Amino acid sequence: MSRGVSFRVSAFVAFTLGVTALGAFVIRLQAGELPLHLVSGAAGKTEPPKPQREWRLVDGKHWQIAGPEGEAPEVTDKAEGTRGVCAAGMVEVNGQMKADPPKKIIFDPKSVEEMQKRTCTKWLQKEYPERCAEFDRAAWLELSKDIPTKPMHYCMDRFEYP
Predict the structure, then answer these.
(1) pLDDT (tens digit per residue) in 128-147
(2) Three-state SS letters, 107-127
(3) Is a pLDDT exceeding 70 seen at residue 11?
(4) Predicted structure pTM score
(5) What is the dihedral of CA 61, 67, 71, 76, to 10 degrees?
(6) Which residues, in sequence order, are CB contacts of 62 under 8 Å at separation 6+?
(7) b vs e for 5-38, b when ≥16 Cβ sit within 10 Å of the residue's Cβ?
């Protein structure tokens, strides 16, 4: 094929694809599949959508949805009785943590995480990152009875910051 013919064929294909894309856009627009703010926003005729909730800036660096202030941490500490030796608004955590054996392979079937997966009875999400809602307590106690533990004692925020 000569260069002239190749150019005309390429131009025709490009034109046909452009018309097809424009037709598909018009059909989707008529079907109501495209939000109007996307269509008119391209022409600069609409304002950005307003937030659905009120937000506030905490400590000049964290955005948080505004809500009622709630009760003082000391009131919650007294009601729950979990403060222990920790500061107000903190929870004392004290116990034995199951210690993973030294890693020999990436997905070690003897790791705590892999053993927990085998005792999950109600999955929130089975694909990575896996999340389990409920475990079979008896199965976990039996499966993990020989895993060494290490003592842990620390304070943790009662609620996620901020």
Answers:
(1) 888 999 999 999 999 999 99
(2) CCCCCHHHHHHHCEEEEEECC
(3) yes
(4) 0.47
(5) -80
(6) 161, 162
(7) eeeeeeeeeeeeeeeeeeeeeeeeeeeeeeeeee
Helix residue ranges, H only, 42-134? 73-80, 112-118
- Contact in structure between 54 and 45 (CB atoms under 8 Å): no
Q: Which of 142, 114, 109, 146 is nearest to 128 (CA)?
A: 114
Closest CA to 113 of 100, 102, 122: 100
Closest CA to 120 of 139, 101, 104: 139
SS3 82: coil
- Identity at 91, one-letter amino acid code: V
User: What is the sign, positive or negative, of the torsion defined by CA atoms of 151, 157, 160, 162?
Assistant: negative
Q: Which amino acid is at 105?
A: I
Q: What percent of the chain is helix, strand and coil (3-state, nearest 5)?
A: 35, 25, 40
Query: What are the tokens at 59?
Result: 């400590």
